[in-house]
Amino acid sequence: DNVFKNNNFFDNTFDVATNSRQNFNRFERNYWSHYAGYDLDKDGMGDVPYRPVRLFSLIIERQPPALILLRSLFIDLLDLAERAIPVLTPETLIDQHPRMKPVQILKLNQTQASDKGKYHG
Q1: In b/e form, how buried is each residue of 65-99, taking b as 16+ CB within 10 angstroms?
Q2: DSSP secondary structure letter of residue 104
Q3: Relative to the CA of 104, which of 11, 29, 53, 73 has its CA 20 to 30 Å away?
């Protein structure tokens, strides 16, 4: 099993692609630029889980010429239907608590303000 946690996924055509309905990877607290959920309790995490696999990626896996439809209204409708009723994408490939804002990545020699003055030996 692999765990993908506290990452940023920006503007990918396909956030995650798979050729199987089985999944042994976990996604936790990642930022997904395509996430369209909401955060009613204002904790910085989306209140609706995010499914990063698009049905269209599964179609392209089997029929590569379908890529020509990528930015079409038909594919937008297909994505909308799959979000409403996810039947073909892996059930376990989900981020239960997606971030609403990107993860702040610190440089290797940079410390957070709360760490200033502490010894890091």
Answers
A1: eeeeeeeeeebeebeeebeeeeeebbeebbbebbb
A2: P
A3: 53
Alpha carbon 103 to its chain centroid, in Å, reads: 13
Cα-flanking dihedrals φ and ψ of residue 60, to 5°? Answer: -65, -35
Q: Which of 41, 44, 52 is nearest to 4 (CA)?
A: 52
Render 47-101 in DSSP notation, one character per residue.
SS-B--B-HHHHHHHH-GGGGGGTTSHHHHHHHHHHHHS--SS-TT--BSS-BSS
- pLDDT, block means (10 residues), the chain with 121 residues: 94 83 87 96 96 85 90 89 78 92 84 52 43
